Structure formats: structure tokens, C-alpha cells
Amino acid sequence: MSNQRPSGLGDPNEASAFRVSRGSPLLDITRIPYDRTGQPFQLLRRLANPQRVHIVDQRLPLTSP
User: What is the pTM of this model?
Assistant: First the structure.
């Protein structure tokens, strides 16, 4: 699984959706899970206001052994 956590500045549409000022920093989390053959099978993207979110990443597997 690949995780990227860049931060960015909200564009006008994102600022409106998050009710923040245009150009306010936002947390952009992109996650790409891979299947057993190593092929990516999903793209997950979450955009969040860093003042209103708490992230805990325990690196737990998505499937049971």
C-alpha cells in the first residue's frame, strides 16, 4: 500500500466546500492499495481541514491472514 500525505492550498471550490478561506492549507491524503500480485486496485483520496481532523495510522493490514 502506498500513502502520500502532501499538504496543499485549497482552491476556491475546496475552500467553499470546507468553509475556509481561499488559499487555506488543506491536508491531501492519497492511498493506493495493491492486490497480492502487486497491481493497484483502488485510488482513495481524502481532502481534509487539518484543524478539524485527527489521523492515526497504525499500519494495520486491510485483510486478515
Answer: 0.56
Q: What are the residues whose beta carbons fall under 8 Å from the beta carbon of 10, sequence distance 6 or more? A: 18, 20, 22, 23, 24, 25, 26
Taking the alpha carbons of 45, 50, 55, 57 in that order, is the dihedral positive or negative? positive
Read out DSSP for the chain? -EEE--EEE--HHHHHHHT--TT-EEEEEEEE-B-TTS-B---EEEEE-TTS---------SS--
Contact (CB, 8 A) for 24 and 42: no
Tens of pLDDT, residues 15-42: 888 888 888 888 888 889 999 999 999 9
